[in-house]
Amino acid sequence: ETGVTQTPRHLVMGMTNKKSLKCEQHLGHNAMYWYKQSAKKPLELMFVYNFKEQTENNSVPSRFSPECPNSSHLFLHLHTLQPEDSALYLCASSQGRQNTEAFFGQGTRLTVV
Amino acid sequence: AQSVTQLGSHVSVSEGALVLLRCNYSSSVPPYLFWYVQYPNQGLQLLLKYTSAATLVKGINGFEAEFKKSETSFHLTKPSAHMSDAAEYFCAVSDRPSGGYQKVTFGIGTKLQVIP
């Protein structure tokens, strides 16, 4: 069982659809993150949750709505997306101590048509 | 504010040749530095990290990196490239954990091609 699991792996949605991405971590970490990876751009940090509380929102459009019901689960609710939102969405988790790194899931490849 | 610059978005090496991927960072505080690798359609996997202990850091798959404060660099090297090393490599910098989480800034990535 991998440490950080994301579902689905691939998603195609229309601009008027509503869908959700799911992330689950089995590492006992307290912090969870959503990143967006687009071609030829650095990874963009979207949201950070620490002990279920949102601590970072990097000016992400409201059509992306995160939810963190507990420290092990993180969702990204999507609605009325644009074609430029097509990207690889990566979830990560980390332990809030020194000398730790983020562990990433395999990502969800999102295509908005 | 912290930032990372990776020189060269694409690097090609012959199988068995030295791999050198360059990374320079900017940080107002002593940084944590990371190298991650990403294979096609996969997430990021940690290769190695620097957290203010030894300046020469050894990672998985024969990779290593040296922290040079005077040059603000953290270049990734491997003495002999293998075909399986073909992937995209990301350098990253973060501040010390504050409030229980880290804010990591990633470079744009370097795609490594290994030629048989």
3D structure, described in words:
The complex is a heterodimer of chains A (113) and B (116). Chain A has 113 residues and is mostly beta strands. In chain A, strands 2, 4, 5, 6, 9, 10 and 11 form a seven-stranded mixed β-sheet that branches. In chain A, strands 1-3-8-7 form a four-stranded antiparallel β-sheet, with no helix packed on it. Chain A is 0% helix and 57% strand. Chain A is globular, with a radius of gyration of 13 Å. Chain A has no helices and eleven strands. Chain A has strands at residues 4-7, 10-13, 18-25, 31-37, 44-50, 53-57, 64-70, 73-79, 87-94, 103-104, 108-112. Chain B is mainly β. Chain B contains no helices and eleven strands. Chains A and B meet through strand 5, strand 9 and strand 10 of A and strand 5 and strand 10 of B.
Q: What's the story with the biggest beta sheet of chain B?
A: 6 strands, mixed
From the alpha carbons, calculate the radius of gyration of chain B and give it in angstroms.
14 Å
Percentage of residues in DSSP E strands of chain B:
over 45%
Number of strands of chain B: 11
Report the average pLDDT across residues of chain A: 91
Report the sheet with the most strands of chain A, covering strand number, pairing sense and barrel closure. 7 strands, mixed
- Low-pLDDT runs of 5+ residues of chain B are none
Order of helices and strands of chain B: EEEEEEEEEEE
Q: Quaternary status of these chains?
A: heterodimer
What is the helix/strand order of chain A?
EEEEEEEEEEE
Overall residue-averaged pLDDT value of chain B: 91
Largest interface: A-B, 31 and 26 residues
Q: Uncertain runs of chain A with pLDDT below 50, 5 residues or more?
A: none
Secondary structural class of chain B: mainly beta
Our count of helices of chain B gives: 0
Q: What's the gist of this structure?
A:
Chain A is mostly beta strands and 113 residues long.
Keywords summarizing the entry:
heterodimer; A: 113 residues; mainly beta; seven-stranded mixed sheet; four-stranded antiparallel sheet; 11 strands; globular; B: 116 residues; six-stranded mixed sheet; 0% helix
